[in-house]
Input
Amino acid sequence: MQDQNNREAGLAAIEDEIEMLTTSPLYTYRVAQGWRPVIGEGDHDASLMLIGEAPGKEEARQGRPFVGASGRLLDELLASVGLQRADVYITNVVKDRPPDNRDPTVDEVRIYAPLLARQIELIQPRVIATLGRFAMQFVLTHFAMPEAGQKISTLHGRPLVAHAPYGEVRVVPLYHPAVALYAAKQKQTLLADFQQVRAQLE
Ligand code: URA
Output
């Protein structure tokens, strides 16, 4: 059990570091646009952590994860299994928005990854649901899981076991909600996969 004071101090330190992460290739762009870093939000004691890829424009404007179109779908997916945002902790691999909605680069993932690793250690979720292939690869590699390198089309909706320093974690890879915005079939897949997430919390 994480000491509450350590947890809050640790999360506050991470927030400060991301604010001032001048070594990030995305820092200057963030400041020039007048955007915010997106650190993460929700219950610091959550059993379930959701990890996305990188903030979109609306997220960078507000400094909050998943508040644009993908976020509305994410809310619906959570509600489909009886969960609300306040029940979970939501963050991203990359904490600043890459230009033109492009994929994060290897260097960008590398610079933000240790901060996400620390967020996981402080929140100590029992279940991690990854949203999209970037988050999936980060988590599978971070926990040195044998499934690392496999495709999201193979692993989505399959609960996997990871061994964190604080104990066992169930990892459920999911497609990114953005893929389901215009594809009804993908939405059905995400709804079914969310049932697996829920089942891991029982
Ligand atoms: N997509 C993500 O991966 N993260 C967000 O916060 C918003 C959209």
In short: The chain has one domain: 2-201. The beta strands are 41-42, 48-52, 89-92, 127-131, 160-164, 167-174.
